[in-house]
Specification:
Helix content is 40%, strand content 10%. It contains 11 helices and 6 strands.
């Protein structure tokens, strides 16, 4: 037993690393044991129309807070399924590839043909990495969505984020932070203007696909994992904080279109995905209570009733769901108590 008076920081850090190692082994084991169960669940729920829309509707506030009324309509009409995989470890690791972090995840959204976009599958990868400053978390790359004419729920934000990222890749600066770049690219400036013009509070869930996170490359993360962070690292940015400042004229440039992307990815992978059956059952119970309270329908006439939407035949849906509508006509998302 170590005497409290001589306990060192190094001893505490070593113990923390041991806890982390055990946690990683537990993730690996659970991933192997549950893979077939999740496959069975996917097969079973594939016959339940609107299953995942109901799950999202019933999800915790960690997820629900990012879903706007228009997003709910997309889920109700077009979301076929979602899938979460820890793609850097077995059994999902491709043959011949080196094993990576058990905390890296891939989230896939599968959609039916719809009026919003052409994509049948939208996938987003999140790599778990460690920065030289001591920062640890998830990083990602913007994913483009092929919106149909006039149907972009992100109002051009996602497209601007994707263009800025591609420009950075072409210039070889996609992993550079503010102190490494003297002058922003035109696409970065365009993205900044777009972000400043659109309020953060009402942004679509689909901006999630533009999240990037802290700029930590695979090479930097591997170096830190082997050698540890810099002895005297500068203060790392907190999660969601803008990290791409440039020169004095462009300091604190807010180029993250979905600052809480890491939190949402974790909530989807560790809560919504794992507890989907529970949320679906709760949605069914809430639907029964709703039917008993039809006399209060007039008070909630502007709410989106997801269970009703996913169950209704296409021909019976209102013009608000099938045609063009103004902002005044757009129904507001139902708030859970």
């Amino acid at each position: 037993m170590v005497e409290p008076g001589i306990t060192t920081y190094e001893q505490l850090s070593e113990l923390e690393r041991k806890f982390d190692k055990v946690e990683l082994e537990m993730i690996k084991t659970q991933n192997l044991l549950t893979a077939d169960l999740y496959n069975q669940r996917q097969e079973l729920v594939s016959s339940i129309d609107g299953f995942w829309a109901l799950v999202f509707e019933q999800a915790s506030s960690d997820i629900d807070t990012y879903i706007q009324a228009a997003d709910s309509q997309v889920f109700a009409e077009a979301l076929a399924s979602i899938d979460v995989k820890r793609f850097e470890i077995p059994p999902y690791l491709p043959s011949g590839q080196e094993e990576g972090s058990p905390r890296s995840i891939k989230i896939s959204f599968h959609f039916k043909p719809n009026k919003w976009f052409h994509d049948a599958v939208i996938e987003k990868y999140f790599w778990h990495r460690q920065g030289k400053t001591g920062w640890v978390g998830l990083v990602s790359e913007p994913v483009n969505i092929r919106w149909k004419q006039g149907m972009d729920l992100t109002e051009g934000l996602l497209d601007a984020a994707f263009r800025a990222y591609k420009a950075e890749v072409d210039a070889g600066v996609q992993w550079k932070v503010e102190t490494d770049v003297k002058k922003p690219l035109p696409e970065q400036l365009s993205l900044t203007k777009k972000i400043e013009a659109i309020p953060d509070g009402g942004r679509s869930f689909f901006n999630f696909f533009g999240f990037r996170g802290y700029r930590v490359s695979k090479e930097e993360s591997a170096h830190v994992e082997k050698n540890g962070p810099d002895p005297d690292p500068e203060e790392a940015p907190s999660e969601g904080e803008a990290v791409d400042d440039f020169d004095d004229d462009n300091k604190d440039m807010p180029r993250e279109i979905f600052p809480d992307g890491e939190d949402l990815a974790i909530a989807i992978s560790e809560d919504l995905w794992t507890d989907a059956l529970k949320y679906f059952t709760e949605a069914q119970n809430d639907s029964g209570e709703h039917e008993e309270g039809d006399e209060d329908e007039d008070d909630d006439e502007d709410d989106i009733d997801i269970p009703a939407l996913v169950a209704a035949p296409a021909k019976s849906k209102s013009n608000k769901l099938n045609g063009n509508h103004s902002d005044d006509d757009r129904p507001r998302k139902k708030q859970k108590a």
